[in-house]
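Researcher: We plan to redesign the surface later, but first we want a full-length starting point. Tokens attached.
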């Protein structure tokens, strides 16, 4: 039994919207379908923005295109809000069902910083993703149950082995984690969430 109650680690991302673990059990929230829908919105928005630019260039009115862009943005925001409500509810339910006192996640600045070494398309997607909204939904739902939400430095949480602690960039290849020192293998996002849990316990 941990002093002050059980801790779960939480990792947030795009391919997996969230991964939560108490070290024994875990829950994955896959992001593939959400990513597809977000990509459709992105393509529609790009097409409309191109049309708007053409109208401007040709001296045509752009009111109707602007209205459609605004409607599209509203639909996308409502969609993501619903997704984040659903994910945050289930994350907190996992915490409650496992008698958790603390949910340990990463400081969101770390997610933005990690985008700097990604491709242009992935950087845009990360910067346009509603991580802050998901974080706030988890925080207020957790507070209802007296559960604390911690934000910790996520540096190297995806590269460090949650079993032996060995850290190297080569440990992680996309969704797979394999420690170059001890050979420990698991899903890379689950490894990151385990590391966030361990950091909270050590802290």
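Model: Full-length starting sequence:
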């Amino acid at each position: 039994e941990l002093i002050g109650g059980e801790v779960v680690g939480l990792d947030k991302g795009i391919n997996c919207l969230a991964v939560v673990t108490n070290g024994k059990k875990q829950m994955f929230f896959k992001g593939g379908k959400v990513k597809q829908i977000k990509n459709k919105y992105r393509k529609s928005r790009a097409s409309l923005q191109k049309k708007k630019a053409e109208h401007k260039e040709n001296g045509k009115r752009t009111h109707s295109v602007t209205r459609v862009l605004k409607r599209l943005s509203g639909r996308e925001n409502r969609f993501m809000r619903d997704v984040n409500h659903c994910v945050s509810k289930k994350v907190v339910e996992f915490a409650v069902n496992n008698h958790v006192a603390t949910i340990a996640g990463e400081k969101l600045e770390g997610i933005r910083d990690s985008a700097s070494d990604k491709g242009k398309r992935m950087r845009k997607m990360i910067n346009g993703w509603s991580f802050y909204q998901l974080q706030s939904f988890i925080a207020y739902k957790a507070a209802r149950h007296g559960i604390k939400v911690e934000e910790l430095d996520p540096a190297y949480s995806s590269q460090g082995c949650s079993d032996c602690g060995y850290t190297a960039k080569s440990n992680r290849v996309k969704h797979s984690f394999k420690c170059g020192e001890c050979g420990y293998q698991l899903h890379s996002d689950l490894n990151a969430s385990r590391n966030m849990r361990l950091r909270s316990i050590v802290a």
